[in-house]
Design brief:
- The protein has 4 helices and 5 strands, in the order H-E-E-H-E-E-H-E-H.
- It has helices at 11-20, 32-35, 63-75, 100-105, and strands at 24-25, 30-31, 38-43, 48-53, 82-87.
- The strands form 2 sheets. Strands 3-4-5 form a 3-stranded mixed beta sheet. It has a two-stranded antiparallel sheet with strand order 1-2.
- It is globular.
- The two termini are 21 Å apart.
- Residues 14-85 form the MIP18 family-like domain.
- This is Metal-sulfur cluster assembly factor.
- Pfam families: FeS_assembly_P (PF01883).
């Protein structure tokens, strides 16, 4: 999800975000977008998509599996030719980044 004040997503970037909603964290059973792990998505004029994201923990054992699933989801969007994943640790992920849907699904209230 793009930071407030950031450039709004293009239609293609919105399609990428929709595709990423199909990538489910196998440990939590919720998609990466609703978990708040996707920080930004940008697609350039050459069709190169850069997904800026984080993981819930450093050294996540599922990172290779998630990389494959993210790449497949991104490349499923017609205008995208290449997927680059920019894995960041700042800002650190916490439950406040989760959508209301994700918090309710996991039984987190507040």
């Amino acid at each position: 999800m793009a930071d407030e004040g950031a450039t709004p997503f293009s239609p293609i970037e919105n399609q990428v975000m929709d595709a990423l909603k199909k990538v489910i964290d196998p440990e939590l059973g919720i998609d990466l977008v609703n978990l708040g792990l996707i920080y930004d998505v940008r697609v350039d004029d050459a069709g190169v998509c850069t997904v800026t994201m984080t993981l819930t923990t450093m050294g996540c054992p599922l990172s290779d599996l998630l990389n494959e699933q993210i790449t497949q989801a991104v490349l499923s969007v017609n205008a995208v030719e290449e997927c680059k994943i920019n894995l960041v640790w700042e800002p650190a992920w916490n439950i406040s980044k989760m959508s209301r849907f994700a918090r309710l699904a996991l039984g987190i209230h507040g």
